[in-house]
Specification:
Helix content: 25-40%
Structural class: alpha+beta
Mean pLDDT: 91
Number of strands: 9
Strand content: 5-15%
Radius of gyration: 21 Å
């Protein structure tokens, strides 16, 4: 089947849309969403429940507070550490080129740490509600507690996050103190972005050959493997700000935003569908053609992104420094031939097999059935044959026709 190209339109909820390239703010208080009050089942919420039941506890360190303990409890590796020195956080006064903010992440949660900061920051991916923000006080406490922080949406719900509570990786030009130079503009980056546009305001350890990027200071410097000329690396859990970890987070942030946005679109559309059916006496659950088209059009943007259709091509090999790539690859399910969607290429493209590993995420599984049905059919039609074989052997809950790929 030929690839279908769909255009994005800025249209309010309730009107059929053709893609999501342009975004509006999704209604957080819509009955189908209820972002502020719906029950949560993200990694941080689960950890808080374990703490409340006395099943675990957080250990405090004088230098890092609860950072190391929370990373361990959340299953986040220190090899994922990346360092951002641009003042683009609510803890901006404490962030500078000599004291960057550290971020750590896995498939379901990101953790932010600022030297001398009062709080740890958390962004957890709920399977249905999207990114939920929390903080943890860094003062020693008998019962440390995560606090939900919806005021983060002032920055984390915008066109850059596709109109839902989400995450983004920004590339900005800074002055010597780390302040973004607004007149210089900037980029929201993901796997589609040319390397030359990426990582302004970030430290980057690793090699990219002749490919230059904007990382490592007001005077960007590529192919850096040691950050000691810039920072006290001993003041962080890792001396690295790994280039492969940065690339992975870039891919993952937009993938997260797309999954949640499409899921929300479908939930709102299906509630409208049920109301329409009830008003005209049609069977509950029967999907009206206009609603089906609306959901499928929104889902198509997610499909094309997860298949890396517009990925920026690498013109030289990429090599990290922290061991993140090796750790990351070991985590994925593998088919009978030992292949995994978490296997990196890093020679001419990011991954060896072009389909997002986030197909295994709870957020993917949490999307409405009408979305997953469409995505599975379109993946069957458009994915590379090797990708189909890997998915067929490693993904649970596939439609029966996927058995043909094994």
């Amino acid at each position: 089947m030929p690839r279908r190209k769909l255009l994005g339109l800025l249209i309010p909820a309730g009107i059929a849309v053709a893609g999501l390239s342009s975004s509006f703010m999704m209604p957080l208080n819509d009955p189908a969403i209820d972002y502020a009050r719906a029950p949560l089942d993200d990694a941080v919420a689960r950890l808080q429940k374990r703490l409340d039941k006395g099943e675990t506890r957080l250990r405090y360190e004088d230098e890092f507070g609860y950072l190391r303990s929370t990373l361990r409890e959340l299953g986040v590796s220190t090899a994922s550490q990346i360092l951002v020195f641009s003042k683009t956080s609510f803890q901006a006064p404490r962030i500078a080129p000599r004291t960057p903010r550290a971020l750590y992440f896995n498939d379901s949660v990101a953790v932010g740490f600022v030297r001398t900061g009062d709080l740890l920051e958390f962004a957890a991916l709920d399977p249905k509600q999207g990114i939920v923000f929390y903080t943890l006080d860094q003062g020693r406490a008998a019962k440390p507690r995560f606090e939900r922080r919806d005021d983060c949406l002032q920055c984390h719900q915008s066109g850059a996050t596709m109109g839902i509570p989400g995450l983004m990786v920004r590339s900005v030009t800074t002055d010597a103190a780390g302040n973004p130079i607004l007149s210089a503009g900037g980029f929201i980056t993901d796997h589609r972005s040319p390397i030359a546009e990426r990582w302004g305001g970030w430290y980057v350890t690793g090699t990219s050959g002749t490919q230059t990027h904007r990382g490592n200071g007001a005077e960007p410097t590529s192919n850096v493997t040691d950050l000691k000329p810039w920072i006290d690396t001993g003041a962080y859990l890792s001396p690295h700000s790994d280039i492969v970890a940065l690339m992975t987070l870039e891919h993952q942030t937009r993938m997260d935003n797309l999954m949640i946005r499409v899921g929300w679109e479908a939930r709102i559309a299906m509630m409208e569908n049920d109301t329409l059916n009830k008003s005209v006496g049609e069977p509950e659950g029967q999907i009206r053609p206009a609603i089906q088209h609306r959901i499928e059009a929104a889902s198509e943007d997610l499909l094309q992104y997860m298949l890396f259709r517009d990925e920026a091509k690498l013109t030289a090999p990429i090599t990290g420094t922290s061991g993140f790539a090796e750790e990351f690859s070991k985590q994925g399910p593998r088919d009978s031939k030992g292949r995994s969607l978490r296997d990196f290429d890093l020679q001419t493209r990011m991954f060896k097999y072009p389909c997002s590993y986030m197909i295994y995420s709870e957020a993917f599984d949490g999307m409405p059935a009408v979305v997953k049905d469409h995505l599975y059919r379109r993946l069957w039609e458009e994915a590379d044959p090797t990708v189909r074989q890997i998915i067929a052997e490693t993904k649970k809950g596939l439609p029966a026709y996927w058995s043909q790929a094994r």
